[in-house]
Amino acid sequence: MARYELVKRSVALITLTNPPVNSLSSAVRHGIAKTMDRALSDPKVTAVVICGENGRFCGGADIREFSGPMRGPPLLPLLDSIEAGEKPVVAAIEGVALGGGLELALVCHYRIAHSKARLGLPEVTLGLLPAAGGTQRLPRLIGIPAALELITTGRHVSSQEALKLGIVDQVTEQNVCEVAVEFALRAVAKPLSSRRLSALTVPCPPDLDALLEAVTMQIQKKARGMMAPLACVQAVRAAATMPYSQGIKRESELMATLFNSGQARALQYCFFAERTAGKWTLPSGAQWNDTKPREIRSAAVIGLGTMGRGIAVSLARVGISVIAVESDKKLMETGRQMVIGMLERDAKRRGVSASLNLLKFTLSLQNLKDVDLVIEAVFEDMALKKRVFQELSKVCRPTTLLCSNTSGLDVDALAGVTDRPQLVIGMHFFSPAHVMKLLEVVCGPRSSSETIATAMSLGKRMGKVSVAVGNCPGFVGNRMLKPYSDQATFLLEEGATPEQIDKVLEDFGFAMGVFRMSDLAGLDVGWRVRKESGLTGPDVDPKNPPRRRQGRKYCPIPDMVCEQGRFGQKTGRGWYMYDKPGGTNAKPDPLIQNLLETYRSRYGIKPRNITDQEIIERCLFALANEGFRILEDGIAARPEDIDVIYQFGYGFPRHRGGPMFYASMVGLERVLERLEHYHQAHPDVSHLEPSPLLKKLVACGSPPIQKWREHIKTMHSHL
Ligand SMILES: C/C=C(\C)C(=O)SCCNC(=O)CCNC(=O)[C@H](O)C(C)(C)COP(=O)(O)OP(=O)(O)OC[C@H]1O[C@@H](n2cnc3c(N)ncnc32)[C@H](O)[C@@H]1OP(=O)(O)O
């Protein structure tokens, strides 16, 4: 796990060998301890170089080991002993030096980085802090403000930025190990005392308290409810105000509170869930690692509304040439200007030149005959989409992939109107598509494995977290949203207010509560869908009992809000009122309060006091309950996929893991018991009826989330 060689007759070269990222597993720590002892005790050795195999220095502690008992030499004393050694040690950093990997580099007396390397202390993103001395050494090296920013955000820096900050001593484009060996030979005669970071004093800014206060406030705003960034601030404060020996004790105490927290477990689960999500398997046996995706060089986007524009930008900025199609000249010109502006701003932000030459705009589908792939992003209307797919089928060459950015319509029905159903797939982007990281890749029953592999790989190329899902109304994300938002509106009937429900959900950690979110998205979209499905509007039979539709409980309050022309932020009125159309500052509206009171008295509903607990349980347990049904139906392959969709597409707080992980943390037995309780109180709300899978898991002793799959029948798989 750590290879030892003697090079240039006097330099010990220690290579970490733990693919793929040379993480500091117990075996690697053991290997470092052994090889360092050997180097320090061999009189022939005058200096040491530490590097990593396969072009990666070190990706930090082995995160998988966090869930088991601690084995092997602990990292902190091991690192302290490297720094204290009497022979110069040089870190040769290639690829990445992250977390414990950077902490290892910080105890080396010198650091040489390859020009393409990235460095950082991302522990905070795992609910932890850099507890192998990182919070104490980095401030001594680069000062409090810069260290605070890197440690509280977990941001990776390029080697050029690391050089500017003073984290590394030299950046090279050559073989970093060879450069480091030469460097080490030159360092032999030099004193080491000033190179031991733990012995340095911290350059402390005069306005330390104000700085720490400002960063704390920023964290409370941006990372609502997260413990780790605040603990990082406290650890850096210790570096600024205490000697190293005390600071390191404080670092360990803070780490101990974080390490066993539910937040750390959730964030570490998210790390692996995100990586698991790309690994799809079909019932046929075809899977992600044995299916070659097609190469996509050119694409077309149909429709230049909000979604189409974002998709065009996402494609062009990764070097794919794009033909964008609109139905009339005015819309095309508006779309052109918007796309160019978005691409230019994006390029400016990234410090690259905008790839405007990759864009073409047209009014005719006839110009699409040679593209490799088409993404349709027209209005969410099945008849319109079918017409587009029929036309594409005639125009495009037979090998062109046809994708739909539908948010919930039947992808197989679209495939059915084409001459190539195996090349049809859903690519459900989230708005705004050039910003949001989630992509649901909706596999129809006839989508070929090559088509799936191509859509997944294109998503990855566009920087998206892509999740393969099955085809059903609403797919995973929007299907689950319905029970969640239904519960919120039922709670309005019973006595809650939009601002009360939103506050509870935002305190839980959601970026936005359900009503604020629907004001942002626009209330008219759902209204139109409900009208088309016969749930509201003139087609509803007047003999239909009030507050019931299609045999189920139905809450017409959202329709009543829309009937008043309140479509959300864009109209300046929705569940809240705003200063102006397009305004974002939501204020409670007495008219909504009035509407709710009138509604309740019309139907004889006596408003009751609704607790925060009931809001959380009804909204979130109904959400997870639908997730269990989705797993049962084979629409998602794993609970991790659902959780990734909810984090990246719906603002579910990452430090809670996602709806399925949250349910597992609350305890499946408790979730079942509460759902049974609420279903008894609302027998006509089917979403509150516990799903068979939830019951089965509880009956099997509530296994950990990673084992749920073993209890899911695979015969239903839609993937
Ligand atoms: C206290 C805490 C201390 C001291 C710590 O050090 S905590 C760990 C801090 N380090 C990190 O947070 C880095 C995590 N890793 C990454 O950010 C990335 O993996 C990477 C930038 C190092 C490489 O990215 P990429 O090339 O895209 O590869 P993947 O992310 O797909 O990773 C490849 C596989 O390696 C597994 N992996 C990565 N890092 C670790 C790790 N630190 N411990 C255990 N396993 C790790 C990752 O899960 C992938 O596994 P598979 O999916 O292939 O099974």
| Poorly predicted ranges | none
Calculate the mean pLDDT score and round it. Answer: 96
Bound molecules: ligand LH2STWOF
- Measure the end-to-end span: 39 Å
Strand percentage, roughly?
5-15%
**Sheet having the most strands:** 8 strands, mixed
Helical fraction: 40-55%
**Order of the strands making up the biggest sheet:** 12-11-10-13-14-15-16-17
Inertia-based shape: globular
Extended strand count: 21
Map the helices and strands.
Layout: E1 2-7, E2 11-16, H1 26-41, E3 47-52, H2 75-84, E4 89-93, E5 96-98, H3 100-107, E6 110-114, E7 118-120, H4 134-142, H5 144-153, E8 156-158, H6 159-165, E9 170-172, H7 176-187, H8 208-222, H9 228-241, H10 244-259, H11 262-277, E10 298-302, H12 306-316, E11 321-325, H13 329-350, E12 359-362, E13 373-376, H14 382-395, E14 401-404, H15 411-416, E15 424-429, E16 438-443, H16 449-461, E17 465-470, H17 477-494, H18 498-508, H19 514-521, H20 523-532, E18 548-549, E19 552-553, H21 557-563, E20 576-577, E21 587-588, H22 590-602, H23 612-632, H24 639-650, H25 659-666, H26 668-681, H27 692-699
Parallel strand pairs: 2-3, 3-4, 4-6, 5-7, 6-9, 10-11, 10-13, 11-12, 13-14, 14-15, 16-17
Antiparallel strand pairs: 1-2, 7-8, 15-16, 18-19, 20-21
